[in-house]
Amino acid sequence: MFEAIKIFTLTWLAMIAIGFWESRVEGKNAWGKGKLDWKWKYGKRVIFTAYHFWLFIIMIPAFLAIPLLLNYSKELLGILLSAYFSGLIVEDFTWFVVNPVFPLRKFNSKDAKWHFWLKIGKFEVPYSYIVAAILAIISWLILWR
Predict the structure, then answer these.
(1) What span, in angstroms and rounded, lies between the C-alpha atoms of 84 and 14?
(2) Distance CA 29, CA 102 (A)
(3) How far apart are the C-alpha atoms of 84 and 68, rounded to whole Å?
(4) What residue spans of 2-101 are helical by DSSP H?
(5) 20 and 100 in contact (C-beta within 8 Å)?
(6) CA–CA separation, 55 vs 111, rounded Å?
(7) What is the spatial distance between Cα 85 and Cα 64, in angstroms, rounded to a whole number?
C-alpha cells in the first residue's frame, strides 16, 4: 500500500505541475484555442486537440509506463492507471485554481464551455471528471484491490 501512495503522490504532483504550466501557456484560451495543428470537433465545439493528444495520450502514459518495464505486475498496472485517471481530474482542476486569467469562479458550464457538463440542480461537474473517476475506480477494483 505504501508503494501505491508514493506512486499516487508523484503522479499527482506531476499533474499539478502540468496544471500550472498549462494554465500559463493557455491563459484564457483553454483547449488549445489559437494553437497550431489539428483539432477534433463535435459540431462547432473542439473536443480534443493535437496538443492534448501528445500530452495526455502519449507523453504522460509513456512516462508512467517506465516502472512496468522494470517490474511488471497486474497490481502495479492498476495503481498506475488509477493514479493517471484520477490525476487527469487533479490536473484539470488545478488549471482553474492557479490560472490568473481564468479563475476558479469560472469553473462552471457557463464559462468553461469546452467541457461537457452534468448538471443536477445547482451542482455541475464535467463529464470527463466522471469518466476519469470511473476508470480509476475500475482499475482499482479489477487490478489492485
Answers:
(1) 10
(2) 9
(3) 14
(4) 2-26, 50-52, 60-70, 74-98
(5) no
(6) 24
(7) 12
Do 84 and 66 form a contact (C-beta atoms < 8 A)?
no
Residues 6+ apart with CB under 8 A from 142: 78
Strand partners, 126: 117
Instruction: Name, in order, each residue with C-beta under 8 angstroms of 113's C-beta and a sequence gap of 6 or more.
Output: 45
Give the three cell numbers for residue 5.
501512495
Report how far apart the first and last C-alpha atoms of the chain are (Å, whole number).
10
Structural domain span for residue 49: 2-144
| pLDDT tens over the chain, length 145 residues | 889 999 999 999 999 999 999 999 999 988 877 878 888 888 888 788 898 999 999 999 999 999 999 999 999 999 999 999 999 999 999 999 999 999 999 999 999 999 999 999 999 999 999 999 999 999 999 999 8
- Residue 139 grid coordinates: 482499475
What is the tally of structural domains in the chain?
A: 1
Exposed/middle/buried for residue 86 (C-beta within 10 Å: 0-12, 13-18, 19+): buried
